Amino acid sequence: MEWTIEPAQKKDCPHLARLAELASGGMSDFLFLDLVPGKSPAEVMAISYATEGQPHSYENTIVARHNRKVIAMALCYDSKHHGINQEMKDFFPSDRLLHLTDFYEARVEDSLYLSTLAVEPEYQGRSIGQNLIKSLKSKAQDKKLKSLALIVFKDNDKALRLYQKTGFEIVRSVRIDPHRLIPHKGGAYLMQCPLTGLAPFESK
Questions:
Q1: How far apart are CA 191 and CA 54, in angstroms?
Q2: Dist CA 58 CA 75 (whole Å)
Q3: Which CATH number covers residue 44?
Q4: Is the pTM of this model over 0.85?
Q5: Which of 1, 29, 75, 201 is the most exposed, having the fewest neighbouring CB atoms within 10 Å of its CB?
Q6: Domain membership flag for residue 15
Q7: pLDDT band (50, 70, 90) for residue 197
Q8: Residue 26 lies inside a defined structural domain of this protein
Q9: pLDDT exceeds 70 at position 33
Q10: Residue-level pLDDT at 204
Q11: Could you give the CA distance from residue 146 to residue 152 in angstroms, rounded to a whole number?
């Protein structure tokens, strides 16, 4: 099977949001459920993806396509944008942001932060995720950033194997307290992948 990796387009936003919801491990439901009357979490995220000039935008997303269909995605941006800003404080209930304080404070400085990596279930196991990460490494180098970084649930064994296989190392634990909408135990890991020839850097 052949696929191509290319920048996402605005028309892809509903598909990107659905993929991101599948990969979020309950985080999208926790943040967006019942936030906008009449709209599902995926519908709210699709609006966010279509908004240009902000981190969680299709502009910062690459996709894998097979026969013009989006089969995988990777959303990333400079790690300096990973955090709770005033716009988020104005939009999300304070208790939801408080619950995720450690998640949003965990980052590796001067890195390209991989916010979402998702592959359609029927296309998994074909090295698509690995190839998306390879493309992100080139993107980070072009931006003169020193590493890639991400946060993954500790009990997501499949994702952990992929990230370790592609050069990521655990930096520290991230506290995410249990919640009925987040069906994961033990919190998460902040991970980084130093780019070739560069030493790991101190995290915040």
A1: 23
A2: 8
A3: 3.40.630.30
A4: yes
A5: 1
A6: yes
A7: low
A8: yes
A9: yes
A10: 44
A11: 20
pLDDT category, 202, cuts 50, 70, 90? very low
Average pLDDT over residues 80-93: 95
Report the SS3 class of residue 193: strand
pLDDT(157) > 90: yes
Does some domain include residue 109? yes
Indicate the number of domains in the chain: 1
Residue 68, by phi and psi: left (phi above 0), alpha (psi -120 to 50) or beta? left
Buried-state track 148-176, b at ≥16 Cβ within 10 A, e below 16: bbbbbbbebeebbebbeebbbeebeebeb
Q: Which residues contact 39 (CB under 8 A, 6 or more apart)?
A: none
202 within some domain: no
Tell me: the pLDDT tens digits for 127-154? 999 999 999 999 999 999 999 999 999 9
Average pLDDT for 79-83: 96
Range of the domain at 22: 4-194
Question: SS3 for 172?
Answer: strand
DSSP string spanning the chain?
A: ---EEEE--GGGHHHHHHHHHHHTTTHHHHHHTTTSTT--HHHHHHHHHT-TTSSSSGGGEEEEEETTEEEEEEEEEEGGG-S--HHHHHHS-HHHHHHTHHHHH--BTTEEEEEEEEE-GGGTTSSHHHHHHHHHHHHHHHTT--EEEEEEETT-HHHHHHHHHTT-EEEEEE----BTTB---S-EEEEEEEPTT-----B-
